[in-house]
Amino acid sequence: MNFATDLIPARLLRRYKRFLADMRLSDGREVVAHCPNPGSMLGLATPGAACWLSAKTAKGRKLDFGWELVTAESGALVGINTGWANRIVAEGLAAGSFPGLPQDGHWRAEAQFGPGTRFDFRHEAADGALIYLEVKSVTLSRQPGLAEFPDSRTERGAKHLRELAVAKAQGHRAVLLFLAQRGDCRSLAMAGDIDPAYASALETARAAGIEVMARACNVSPDGIFLSDAMSLQC
């Protein structure tokens, strides 16, 4: 996924109200940027961190900048915009970049599954067989080389696991994909100390037959692209 415009370097002054961040641009101006990440961003919201912003050009915008990247303590660039995860995966599905998943282009986004439930993607084969795919954006890393999910409690995430288990029980294939928007991690684990309920729900879902995959990304100010598969420690 290439960024549509050149990103603008900045320094983080503070993040607040979850979706706002004060930034200082290289020319000394202080601006407010939209933070498109509802999580805690543990380890990624340290004042003084080097960041990259996108310029917003849409009419009726409330903020002129969006926070896209931050430099972690490891020196790795991390994509903090959770909204990009599905676009990165969609490009990967279209390019056949996920071994074990169909490469015929029959993937559809925002798939309805029962009343009030949607999964990120659905694939329907010629014989009617269905695959439901849910994507989770990962940014947390507290140990070198290890990504963790989640970075805050997520009842919504646990709900998705239960719904995937229902899809599996109905005879469909159900897949959970963790996408780490960072390139300095080679394995992924659950942050059970942060959300033990989610860790337990994942264990239950895997016992029910849910498939789990994890991929890292190559991140730069030019864009975010799929990288290697990550080993699972969960």
What report would you give on this structure?
It is a single chain. The protein is α/β, with parallel strands linked by helices and 234 residues long. It has two domains: 8-79, OB fold (Dihydrolipoamide Acetyltransferase, E2P) (Beta Barrel); 82-232, 3-Layer(aba) Sandwich (Trna Endonuclease, Chain: A, domain 1), CATH 3.40.1350. The protein has helices spanning 85-94, 155-169, 196-207; strands spanning 8-16, 20-25, 30-34, 50-55, 65-71, 77-79, 107-112, 118-124, 130-138, 140-143, 145-149, 173-180, 185-190, 211-220, 223-229, 231-232. Strands 7-8-9-12-14-15 form a six-stranded mixed beta sheet. A five-stranded mixed beta barrel has the order 1-2-3-5-4. It has a four-stranded mixed beta sheet with strand order 10-11-13-16, with no helix packed on it. β1 (8-16) and β2 (20-25) form a beta hairpin. α2 packs parallel to α3 (196-207). The longest helix is centred in the last third of the chain and has 15 residues, at 155-169. The chain starts with 7 loop residues before the first strand and ends with a strand. 37% of the residues are buried. The mean pLDDT is 95.
